[in-house]
Amino acid sequence: MTMYAKVPVRFQTPNSSLQVIKIQPFKQLLEGRENFIQQHYTDVELNVNYIGERRIQYLAGRWAAKRAIINILDNGREFSYLDLEILRLSTGQPSVILFGQCQAIATRLGIAQWLISISHTTTHAVASVVAIV
User: Is residue 2 part of a domain?
Assistant: First the structure.
C-alpha cells in the first residue's frame, strides 16, 4: 500500500467585479453637475475628443470601471475617485493606474496586476475588472 502525504494546495483566486451602468440615468446624474465630473475623473481621463452622447458613454464606461475597482479594494474605507485612473494604451486596451490610498491598499492586498475590459452601447456601459494577486 502506497501512502501519500497530504500537502495543502493553495490556489490564488483572483478578485473580480462586474459593473453595469444605465446610460440615461448616468446622463441625468451628469447634467448640470460639472463638479461631479471634476471630483471623479482625472485630467488625463477627461483629455478625450469625444462630445455629446459618445462622451457620456465614455464617462459611463470609466465610472463602471472605477466602481468595479472600488468593489475589489473596498473594506469600509472612503476613497477618492481621483486616486484611480483608467487610461487607454496605444493598443486601445484600458489600463489601471492607482495613486494614494488606493495604491496602498492594492499593495497591502498583494495585487500584482489588473485585467480590465470596458464596453458600452447606447443604453448601457459595462466594466469587468479582475485583480490578480
Answer: no
Q: Which residue has the cell 457620456?
A: 56
Residue 128: how many CA atoms within 13 Å on its side-chain side? 3
Range of the structural domain that residue 50 is part of: 15-132
Q: Output the pTM of the full model.
A: 0.85
Q: Which three cell numbers stand for residue 51?
A: 462630445
Tens-place pLDDT, residues 32-81: 787 899 999 999 999 988 888 999 999 999 999 999 999 999 766 778 89
Question: Is beta strand 15-22 parallel, antiparallel or unpaired with respect to 124-132?
Answer: antiparallel
Q: Would strands 113-120 and 94-98 be described as parallel, antiparallel, or unpaired?
A: unpaired
Please give the grid coordinates belonging to residue 99. Answer: 495613486
Q: In angstroms, rounded to a whole number, what is the distance separating the alpha carbons of residues 105 and 72? A: 10
